[in-house]
Amino acid sequence: MIRRKFISTRLLKNGMKIDQAIVDGTGRALIAKGAFLDDFQIEYLQDKGVNGVYIQEGEADPEDLEEKIQIPQYTKEVIAKNRVEDRAKVKLSESVRKRVGEGIQYLYNNTEDSGFEESTRNIANELMNAIFENDAVAVDIGMLKVSDEYTFKHSVDVATMAMVIGKKCGLNEGELRELGIAGLLHDVGKSKIPNEVLNKPGKLTDEEFALMKQHSLFGFQILKEKHTFSDAIMRGVLQHHEKINGKGYPLGVGEEKIHRFAKIISVADVYDALVTERPYKSAFSKRDAVEMIMAMTMELDLDVMKSFLESVILYPVDSIVELSNGERAKVVENSTQYVLRPKVVGIRSGKVYDLAGDLSCASIIIL
Predict the structure, then answer these.
(1) In terms of domains, do 99 and 80 share one?
(2) Total of domains in the chain
């Protein structure tokens, strides 16, 4: 059961979920409602003299939510008749989440450690096991949370998505393991960026942005100095911000010179960054993020983009969505070809909306 509670900013802790938006004088959202607070955001609230905020405690029980919505019996029967389980998704147990979260945090804070490579491979193996344990072919981004600190959560999200995308692209197990390592370490160069630049809540200056753009080069140098990582891993880290039109960084190389690992990591990196709340920007909805990805045909590899769209589940079966026609609906089946348009059943009407296959539903979208 979810409860709303007012709490002094002195008592805020990393990972608490804020239940109000924090805005500046112009109305710009600095911290969005529903964001999981990190140490930087808590310190920001305290420095600005905010005495207290509302937070959320507890979690919504799906059965309670269904009861609250009061799904008619007829609709329940229609849902049961049309419901098709999602394809196998990556599942991380609580123990694995804890080990992976703590492991990646240690690595980013201890890049000089003698066991750096071994620790990285152990974390990649944890993710490999999660993918192959149930022959996972898809990922639900909302279920990946391993840490409340952005850099570490982002690294694991990107690595996991990249491995699932890579599997869809036909990479073998050895290549997937290497890709996972590159995904985990793609932002390790940010350990060389000052925190005041890395977590700046406002727009970066030209000098700060130029420094930030060097993080992939810094990461490459960290790995190169260890003499233990493959060329594929190092190029995945170095080139994950390169674009196929040659307008990326740090080298500005074109499609033919960008390593396959970097092309895969780039798509996962862009998507996860778009849907994640940061001190300087609000999170985009999963739907908007996917549409933005689909529009980046001049920047992202098309084959990788296709594999990404077939690998990510935005609306898991049984989730409740709002339709543009005003009706609330329950998702009953997803389509690998049309990630934004699952089959749903209207809760009030019991009507089946096949958003991908029924032309009469062409004007209806999920909000």
Answers:
(1) no
(2) 3
